[in-house]
Amino acid sequence: MKKLKFHERFKLPVDLEKEQRRFVQGMKTLLRTDKLNGDYCRDHRIVQLPRKKIKENLAIYFGESLDHYKSIEDYIPSEFLGCLEALEEIYKSIYIQNQGQLDFYIQELLKESRIDLEVEFKNGQFFPKGSELLDEKLIDDILNCLNSEEHADILPPFSTGLLRYKESIKDQSKLKDVIENMYEALEAFAKYINKNDKDLSGNKELLIKNLKLNDYYKNMLFEYIAYANEFRHAARKRQRRPGLNKYEVEAFIYLTGLFIRLGIKRST
Q1: Which residue, 98, 111, 138, 149, could crosslink 94 as a Cys pair with Cβ 3.0–4.6 Å?
Q2: pLDDT single digits (tens) 225-264
Q3: Which residues contact 205 (CB under 8 A, 6 or more apart)?
Q4: Half-sphere exposure in the Cβ direction for 171 (13 Å, CA)
Q5: How many C-beta atoms lie closer than 10 Å to residue 224's C-beta?
Q6: CA atoms of 162 and 182, how far apart (whole Å)
Q7: Cα dihedral 72→74→78→79 (10° resolution)
Q8: How far is CA 228 from CA 83, 158, 213, in A?
Q9: What confidence score (pLDDT) does residue 44 get?
Q10: Angle of helix 215-236 versus helix 246-267 axis, rounded to 10
């Protein structure tokens, strides 16, 4: 017989944001109490956490000044996605033995959550769990293409966009964020291919040239940018955004991924 959790036995409502905060605080507590220092290492050796290196990496990653009086947890954002970003950076900064423990505790906290936090941790990175509305095989293929150090600037906005899309099933206001995140992912990809720091509008001609794409793809890219700018520029000019529906946004995700996948295949 399956054991029911406390909230299930007493039929208590559970709030997603509250559970996300519990996860964040749980990770901060584990890091503060040195739980990663060798307790579960296979060879039973104590491996000290490289705290100085972790703080330096987090300070650089989040653009903060380094303060040696601060603890690691002080550099971890209290916002859920910010915490996930910080944990990925911490994972990169620590020893293999510590990585195994960090993975262990993250998996435990995710399992102990009273509701599904809709993310999973694999090989040092967080990914949104696949939505039934998305073609998981296609999305997984794109994520695999991006899973390398050279695409480190492209994967985060793409993954965040997937997570925002998942959240939009319950909160449709998140759909606008998906457009922003996907656009940022393709913009980062164009910078990578063109080896410059221009925005996507300024990079579109060179991107088509460098990837040796024909006029049909050129027109598709131009229309992609025009569509996205309807939402991006409206926010900046304080204009009302056009309406969005989940199926249009789903197609925008696929189109972003297809541009990136095509570009990676043509550039290798």
Answers
A1: 98
A2: 999 988 776 555 555 555 678 888 989 999 999 999 888 8
A3: none
A4: 10
A5: 19
A6: 9
A7: -70
A8: 28, 15, 21
A9: 44
A10: 130
